[in-house]
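Reopening this ticket.

The earlier resolution said the output was attached, but the attachment link was broken on my side. Pasting everything inline this time so it's all in one place.
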Amino acid sequence: MSRPVRVLVTGSAGQVGVDVVDSLGGRVPPGGRDGLPLDGRAVDHGEFEVLGLTHHDLDVSDRDAVHHALAASRPDVVVHLAAYTKVDAAQRDVRRCFAVNADGVGHVVDAASAVGAHVITISTDYVFDGRKGAAYVEDDLTNPQSVYGASKRAGEEWCSPEVTVVRASWIMGVRGTSVVHTMARRARDGQEVRFVTDQRGTVTASADLASALVALVRARPGGLWHVANDGDATWFDVAQHVGRVLGRGDDFAHPIRTSDLDPLPLAARPERSDLDTTKWRQHFAPLGPWRESVERLVTWEGAAR
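Inline output:
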């Protein structure tokens, strides 16, 4: 019998990390569908040996610590999820943002190369400027408009074609912090919300992304991949859908423009950064419609209250 595939997951306590650890263990994460990875194969008992490292276990901006961790564990695959994700705070915390999102990727890639491990790392739609006027494909030119986006592009630049780079967008899960939790809480409390109609993107449900990552751990394809749920939306669309799932009427969500926000966000967001997932769907099963995933997320979140 062959030994399990040893998978090291950085950022394992984060929103995506907890779902990935569950999925690699053959468990359905909260908000997930049927637990079947998107390559159509169930996870066999003992197929993966998972080592999850939280930020407290490993600071990826520390080169020596990263090399020591990978030399000690000698994984077959590294799913690199540790990241600086505070988009507005990054505008004032440039050094730390780049240390984690750019240098951190470089450290992981170098250390993985030294032990012969494949790397799967997560990037973002914010590497684009939103001016294309259509969904972005993998080889479109990048032009980030924020420190966060620039740091993630710098992380991509550390990656050779052998590294698998997954661009996801508007990630939301049952666990962790998500704007959908705010929407759901206010809907249940009888409040109203205002969300923008001039930022369009693609929802990526964390549990569905985790299922995709299991498929990529097996395939180790390398290159850029856009991975997100089907269909584009504005934040207003998402809020309106959450309200309807929870039995609120059309008085729950109100449309506004980004310029109406008070205070205005520190970081610029692309007006349209939805991801074209054609490449993904040519090789793997789709993640499914975003509305279904948001409904699952809100239902699971409500049951956990």
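Reporter confirms the inline version is readable. The chain has one domain: 5-177+202-229+272-287. Residues 94-115 form the longest helix (22 residues).
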